[in-house]
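*** Fold description ***
***
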Amino acid sequence: MSISIFDLPHILEQIGSHLSRKDISSCSLVCFHWNRVFEPLCWRYFELGNKIDCSRLLEQPRSLEIFRERAPTIQSLTVHNSTNLGQLVEFLQKTPGIFSKKLVRLVIESKDFPGPSAAFDVMIKLLSITQDHLLHLEANIHGIPQMSQIFDGQLETSFRSLESLKTIVLKGQYEIVGPSLAALLRHCPVSVESLIIDYPMREVYEPVSRWNIIATAPALGNMLTDDERLTLFWQDALPTNIRTLQLPRSIRKNEQVALIPFLRYRCPKLTTWEPVSTVRPISGSQLAEAINLSCPNLENLVFDGLSIERVGGGFDGGMDMEDFLRSCSSLERLETTYSEPNNFSTGQGATGTMWIRDKPLSTRQSLTLTSALTSTPTSTPTSTPTWVWACRTTLTHLDATFYMYRNVSDKGRFRKQIEQTYRKLGQLEALVELRLGCCCRCYGPKLADCQHYLYSAENGAAEILQGRDRQKQEQQQQQQPEQERGEGQEGDDDEVILDMSLETGLGHLAGLKRMRFLSIGRIQGHKIGYAELEWMRRNWP
């Protein structure tokens, strides 16, 4: 194919499409002819408004002509509030095709908008203009207005037409309510792969019966229960392509109406949920169940600032992290990040609790555990043991807290439960980082100042020794007769909840051949001495 001199502007335009804005501006200053080629490319990133009177653009014919010529070159459009912005938006609506398919990114900055409703209205109108080719939507608006049937209808109509949209980022400082969040999740376009909604949630639960966005027949309006209304709201919700998810913090009290239905109906391809804000303990098991049944590809589950106090203080109401380990077969990371760096030196802590209860082992569990204890390494089980977690071949990072039931009726059975927990840890073939802690979750420098249990750390927490009071007691016991010392040791054993000795603890972790980081932060009953440290050095070089 021959190329003539007349193809040079087209070639320069193709070259300019891969240059930065600074380089394009430099090229446009070379000569008049280069300016005609490169200056339109400077409009790839165009800001509309930004304290400029938009009426000048509409009233001056030359400015309007230039805008019509170069609008098709715009790839990213940023909209600020300005004088007469509404007139310009209406002009764009009345001029179909003014933007080409090159426009793939829309950014709305609402710092100067009078309120959430005004910014939301501008966003809806602009979406109707760019719906055919928009890939990325980012709206930094103060908040989402209180949802009504009018707003809900506009949102549904606009989002339904965005067939190519890949990412949605909605963020702001004002609190949003449960119905607004539910509407956003319900009408999210099917094509979206990344959804980020970064708003604080209002800590008030609004019953579904008060939602004015659920249209029901007048004859049935007062006869439907909240569950029936919620089912009516989420019916016909289609699955999306969402793989990365971030939802508002403090979503508590709205999990049942927004979060759990969204996971069940719309997130079959979810792989990363980070960060996960605190949820109520009563919803923990239901959340794990929804992930297990509807999100089989979930790999990264990272909680944000989750504390024992927020999770729940009782075994009947506490959220058990083992539910996720037991259910999610593709899970790779189960961690927590903290926004306050003073809490933990590493910036990480325990995600929550794995509850160890004093409950009878099932017959199948007892047989499996007994056969595992007596079998040789060459033996092959006929079926997958029930005490092995579903993510045993995928989990690489685990950050969790053990919490034990104190009123133990059968100590022998309870120790089997403890040993079974360590066996589950030992089956994590891909584990690289393991962080274990107790309720106070003291790590790093804070470990030495922990008053939760009477232990102290020496040599940078490399070896956890018993506290001074306990050391004195042991010295006194060594001076007593053999019989009395035995009785004293039996009393100490009663306080050992999670023994990390080779016989019951670390010895079951020999299968963690890939582990490179181990953090043990103050678990009551830890017995780690030189024998255990030597075993670690030999097995985990």
The CA atoms of residues 354 and 409 lie 20 Å apart. Residues 411-426 form the longest helix (16 residues).
